[in-house]
Amino acid sequence: MKSVYFTTPIYYVNAEPHMGHLYTTALGDMLKRYYQMTGSSVYYQTGTDEHGEKIVESSKKLNISPKEFCDKISDKFRSTWDEININYDDFIRTTDVRHKLFVQSILKKVYEKGDIYFDEYTGKYCVGCERYLTDTELIDGKCPDHQTVPKEIKEANYFFKMSKYQDSLIKHIEDNPEWIRPVRFKNEVLSFLKQPLSDLCISRPKSRLEWGIELPFDDKFVTYVWFDALLNYVSGIKETSKGDNIFDEFWQGCNHLIAKDILKTHAIYWPTMLMSAEIPLFNQLDVHGYWMMGESKMSKSLGNVIRPSTFDKHFGIENLRYFLFKEMKFGSDSSFNYDLFIERYNSDLANGLGNLLSRNAGLVAKNFNTIPAKVALTCDEETILKIHSRIVGDYKENFETRQFSKAIEDVMTLISATDKYITLMEPWKLAKDPGKKDQLARVLRCGLEVVRVSAVLLSPVMPQKAGAILDYLGETRPLDGTVSFEELTAFDSLKEGVELPKPPQFFPRFDSVRVEKILEEMEQETKTVSTETDSPETRVIEPIKDEITIDDFLKVQFKVGEIIEAHHVEGAQKLLRLMVDLGEENPRQIFAGIKSHYMDPKILLGEKVMVAANLKPRQMKFGLSEGMILAASGDDRLAVATFKGSAKPGDKVS
Ligand code: MSP
Q: 460 CA distance to ligand 1 centroid (A)?
């Protein structure tokens, strides 16, 4: 039996769980269920990342100790996953003793083999930020957030010889082209590795930061948070919270699930750390894109707030999972908004699967009471059988290559073909003719069989809903691999004689009045106070106005700019502060009203964007804005215009 081990990133405890975290965590849950159903032994670990300077800051604000703070938020993550039925095997915290001891043992090993050295580092330290700032972050020599001149500090620290493993890493990636998926992330890593790697600073002096894992070879230092955090993937299976060591069984099947924001740490820091620690490399890195929050027509203020538990209460978390896995093409970014979610739910689940079930089950209940016995299939069912055999055949490959949206769309294709078949066969008319009982039984069984197979195929996506449907149809075989996937999905294996009471409403339609009411309630729950006016300076896109001449147009100088920093702006609801490299001596600061569409500004880093470069700088409430970036927008969507290929900062756009 194949053993597979899935991990999510361990989440920082300085934010409460949101939809981005939910996606990766639900993804691990879905994969666990899929691999179990198809006969693998699966272990799934998630958890929280609790050290680092930010945590100390956040705990100070609440006047509690860092540990108390971590306990509180870590519990919130765990209880959220419990509330929404995430089937994880272990929840690791970097403050667990088992983890700390493991990190120290690895540090000792790596130090003793000579891969860690001590060196002096000079940098500009901002006490307000409690970190070193790079020259490009400073504005007029000052920290832009605290308006203070940072202190020049010489700090001695320990460094990990990451550069030593650069060639071996490149070779591993080239020899294993599927190791980082999708392929464009592999290419991104390889292209980054064309530059010489620098060594990694892996310590922080206790004089500045005490909250961390003490270095085993120097008690005046704690471990840098990433060197600590990445090791959770091994510490958690070397000693599970039950006390078992399952490393030998599961490590070789380790599959890390992450979003693209932490690609570098997982594809470069982590494997070089493993090489140095002489631990075999993980098996797979699956990188997904970012969820962005589109403004909803139905709800403006809820645009970028989704708490998994609140969502579950109002709309059902499994309905959201269905949407997320169907909508996101693995590796690409996607946008969530309520209108689209409701539209998809109503068309696929309420009118699709739900309707197919209630139509057929209702007629069975009325005409047979129980599921009738098998009747030989005819050429009427040919199309359905063909689609069934194609989609069941492709299902495993789609899951294994992470093409979940294709696997789900296939199920919907089968459902809509069956819907057409039912409409054509008119079972309600057959029911009126006592001589056509057999025909009626065949048609209704076929409709219900498609519901049964669909529920099996959708069970990793919506386990509870699928389970309830299967129960209702008398399909009680477990989906945990004890019955083979082929048997579970074989056509016409619906049991006869199962009593079908009037079907419950598995997927009641959401009508717009009901949705608006729910959204209003949710808005009340998450009400935020607007601190910013809708001033024209905050707009990215000007509406098309009067015609202009080519000369007018040529007055605007468009250039390629590379985003090298992206920050939230305290007190601003819509703005992000971007530092954009236009190939000039200093990068420019640009404020852009795109925050609601880029929940985590980090994803903009490295993007080459189109900048109107010769706009007169504008003094805004939050600072000087020295240009404008261009974006496409429509209804509730917004996407910053970016360049692919060889465009360089400063290139003219004409
Ligand atoms: N603590 C580090 C990870 C250490 S792992 C050894 C960290 N934590 S995080 O809380 O910032 O989580 C980042 C991860 O959360 C992403 O890689 C992704 O899994 C998930 N997401 C957070 N926001 C997201 C979106 N908007 N969209 C999709 N996933 C996102 O980084």
A: 22
**Ligand 1 mean position, distance from CA 360 (Å):** 43
Locate the ligand 1 atom nearest the alpha carbon of residue 49 and give its number: 1
d(CA 410, CA 416): 10
Under 8 Å between Cβ of 17 and 76: yes
In the prediction, which pLDDT does 298 show?
A: 42
Residues with CB under 6 A from ligand 1: 9-12, 20-21, 23-24, 49, 229-230, 232, 258-259, 261-262, 290-291, 599-600
Contact 287, 185 (CB under 8 A): yes
Q: What is the pTM of this model?
A: 0.80
Q: Residue 433: helix, strand or coil by DSSP?
A: coil
With a CB cutoff of 8 Å and minimum separation 6, the contacts of 636 are 294, 295, 296, 297, 337, 339
The residue to mutate among 6, 7, 8, 11, having the most atoms of ligand 1 within 8 angstroms of its beta carbon, is 11
CB of 182 closer than 8 Å to CB of 330? yes
| Tens digit of each residue's pLDDT (9 = 90 or more) over 640-650 | 898 887 889 99
> What structural domains does the chain harbor?
3-288 (3.40.50.620), 312-489 (1.10.730.10), 550-643 (2.40.50.140)
